[in-house]
Design a protein that fits this description.
mainly alpha; DNA polymerase, domain 1; 2 domains; 3-stranded mixed sheet
């Protein structure tokens, strides 16, 4: 154990750790490690902007170069994916408000939407467009 990076006194625990990390037990741990890596990969989300193919044309709602969101044309999924603090339900409220009252005339009008406050607007002001 003196060459080990892990310094544990020579006890049963240290011997058990050494045995678990030894070459002969790594094969038994491989399925567990593979399952953990798979589960961790499922928890990660790829940004829709990054997932686009490089040669695919940009959608009118999201500009891939600037990562901006047009709140007058974007669907609920695009709004939820690209606006901080806006989930699926708030994004649906934005779309409902837009359908009921027409297009937004300014970004500040977003605070009229149920569940959208000035702090959410401030977090997203740099990515919101109206064109």
């Amino acid at each position: 154990m003196t060459n080990s990076l892990l310094r544990i006194p020579n006890t049963r625990t240290a011997l058990a750790v050494r045995d678990m990390l030894s070459f002969r037990h790594r094969a038994a741990l491989a399925p567990l490690v593979a399952a953990l890596l798979l589960a961790a990969g499922m928890l990660l989300r790829i940004s829709p902007v990054l997932a686009e193919e490089p040669n695919a044309p940009a959608t009118p709602a999201v500009s891939a170069a600037a990562m901006q969101v047009n709140i007058n044309t974007a669907d609920a999924q695009t709004l939820a994916a690209n606006l901080k603090g806006v989930g699926e339900s708030r994004a649906a409220e934005i779309v409902r408000y837009r359908e009921a009252y027409g297009p937004f005339s300014s970004a500040e009008e977003l605070v009229e939407v149920k569940g959208i406050g000035s702090s959410t607007l401030d977090m997203n002001r740099d990515v919101i467009t109206l064109e």
